[in-house]
Every structure is written in structure tokens, then in C-alpha cells.
Design goal:
The protein is mainly alpha-helical. The protein contains eleven helices and two strands. The radius of gyration is 17 Å and the shape is globular. The N and C termini lie far apart (about 40 Å). It holds the Pfam family Adenine_glyco.
Length: about 200
């Protein structure tokens, strides 16, 4: 099976993204481009956790609702959430109302605060896990995602399994998994080459 399909403008793109305009925009402007901003990294960790058992299309469609419900995924604000916030979120039809995932986000914000104190930033910690060589194209997990998952779990994080962490690494540009022949692959590669690694 080809890993590319023509997009709405006729240019080839990763086959998974051509189903909707939102997917194409996300693929072309975000997916695989390196990120060093702690808030964006934390948001993606949270949303990948919410995606567990669901499709990214579902989460992407609700992303603005998630941002509103979790105060833009500001780590310190989410870390201060309490039981009343959990109940508020469980009543919010604009997000995925899964108690375990909601509570994991709050817990993970507190664990992220500890990481920032230890490493200087979440970005510095995350980018220490950039693989020296890219994993096989189309893989669902990698040695790096397994190691990152294991370390985060050791630190008390939840909903950070190896598959979830691999999707995070792909999305945040720690690996360039745009398919060979994808029109955006070279752009993501150039962005990675120019990117200044934190820490």
C-alpha cells in the first residue's frame, strides 16, 4: 500500500491525512515540525492520552474545546485543578468525558511541574529523548517511545504508553515520519535541521 495519496491540491501527502481539510491543515502545518514550547508539548501529551482508544480525528475536532476546558493547558493552572474541576470537566460535552483521562491530565501537570524544576523545562526533558536514528517508517512504537514511556511512568505519569509516546514523538517533530514522497517531508526535514534543541 502506498504511504501517500493526492491531497486536495493534487500534491502527494501521507495517506492518513487526506480524509478531511482539518487533517490536511494539521499535517501540513504542525505534524512533524519540531516544538520547544512547554505548553504545546504538555498539550500534546494530554491530547495523545485522550486519544487512547479513539481516533486523532475525534480529538482534533474537539481540540479548541479541550483548550478552553483546560485553560490552554497551562501547566501550573491545570496542576491546581481540584475535585470540583474534575466534576466540571465530566459535565463538559465538548471534550472526551473519561474520568481516568481527566484525572491523569491533572496528575501529569503536577508531574510536569516536578520535571520543570529538575530539568529547567519540559522541552529540555523531552528533547533528551530525540532518537539518534529514525525508527522504521510506519512503526507504531520504537525503542525511544518505549524508553520514554517507561521513564514517565516511573515518574508517576499516566496514559503515556509506548504507542501514545510514539505518536507524540512523530507529532512534535522529534522524528520526521512524513512518508517518502510526501510533499511536506522536505519542509519538516528543513525545520528539524534549523531547530535549536533546548537544554
Amino acid at each position: 500500500m502506498s504511504r501517500t495519496l493526492p491531497g486536495p491540491d493534487g500534491r502527494p501527502r501521507c495517506h492518513w491525512c487526506v480524509a478531511t481539510a482539518d487533517y490536511v491543515a494539521y499535517h501540513d502545518r504542525e505534524w512533524g515540525f519540531p516544538v520547544a514550547d512547554d505548553t504545546r508539548l504538555f498539550e500534546k501529551l494530554c491530547l495523545e492520552g485522550f486519544q487512547s482508544g479513539l481516533s486523532w480525528r475525534t480529538i482534533l475536532a474537539k481540540r479548541e474545546n479541550f483548550r478552553g476546558a483546560f485553560h490552554g493547558f497551562a501547566i501550573d493552572r491545570v496542576a491546581a485543578f481540584d475535585a470540583a474541576d474534575v466534576q466540571r470537566l465530566l459535565g463538559d460535552a465538548g471534550i472526551v468525558r473519561h474520568r481516568g483521562k481527566i484525572e491523569a491530565v491533572i496528575n501529569n501537570a503536577r508531574r510536569a511541574q516536578a520535571l520543570v524544576r529538575e530539568e529547567g523545562s519540559l522541552a529540555a526533558y523531552v528533547w533528551r529523548h530525540e532518537p539518534a536514528a529514525p525508527p522504521p517508517a510506519g512503526a507504531a512504537t520504537s525503542e525511544t517511545s518505549i524508553a520514554l514511556s517507561k521513564d514517565l511512568k516511573r515518574r508517576g505519569w499516566g496514559f503515556v504508553g509506548p504507542t501514545t509516546m510514539h505518536a507524540f514523538l512523530q507529532a512534535m517533530g522529534l522524528i520526521n515520519d512524513h512518508a517518502e514522497g510526501c510533499a511536506i517531508r522536505a519542509e519538516a526535514m528543513a525545520a528539524r535541521a534549523a531547530f535549536r534543541r533546548p537544554g
